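Kindly inspect what follows.
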Amino acid sequence: MSFTFAIIGGGLTATAMLSQFVDKVCHEIDPNQLNLSKIQIQIFEKQDTFGPGFPHCDRNVMPFHITNMCAKDMGIQLTNPADFQEWVSDHQHHLKKLSPHLLNGADDPDRCNHYPRAIMGTYLKEKFQEAHRKAQTLGLMVDLHSQSEVIDLEEKHNQIRLTVKHLGSESTFSCVADRVLLATGHWFKNMEGATYFPSPWPANNLLQKIPQGEKIAVIGTSLSAIEVVLTLTSDGHYIRNDSNELAYVPPANPRRFVLYSRRGLLPKVRGKMGTYRNTFLTHENLESLIVENNGYVKLEAVFELLNSELEAAYG
């Protein structure tokens, strides 16, 4: 009895699914008990490349668009979250040509680095190709449909019929699957017009279609909003002032932004933890306050210690 599994989308989720499925087959399935050639995997992707997906494709992003998590947490292997960081370490000399700042003179890249999205895309592309090769070696049938959009699903007799449009020729075809994984990422409402953009990607699309001097409303203040602002201010440049601090110099006719948010909050700044040790707000000083005040501590006294600590740390 054959089994067909369809994956709609060929980006991060599809890559993680295929990679972990193949690993489970390798380590947990006895080929003598299951005919792997009877398992067919169909993967449909609108772009011409499998792995990166839309927000990690080097054609859609710019070098300053970075991942929102540390490298050590970006791996697609459930049992090894550090897989991405290990891949970066193994490929560091090649990656340094793409992003020279990654190594900063160290033998290994920083595990808490936030890498350019395009670097993550390269990792995903390689992981997809690796999983595809392993699947073929095992005897699994994997059919890849690039530049293909699934435009309809119809459930019938415990199966699902997919209607697929090839984006190059506009021709359509149908196929049947026993199970389907939706791995399409975010869905955006298709609104026609030159003044509405449903996504930060492709970044060049924003630069080309939003002239300098325009007033722009960005709905949201989270990561995507920040990436929009980064894209549309990239025609400025940075200089170092007399204090050796970087200062942004906008173009002659800069775009102007208003960011709208339900909560009115910007993303937290995720810095690196330094080696600073408290000298005022310490466990010992708090214990002393408790002893001196017969078991009670006024909040004012704690704030005095905190204020002294902040002054010592930041001046």
In short: The chain has a mean pLDDT of 88.
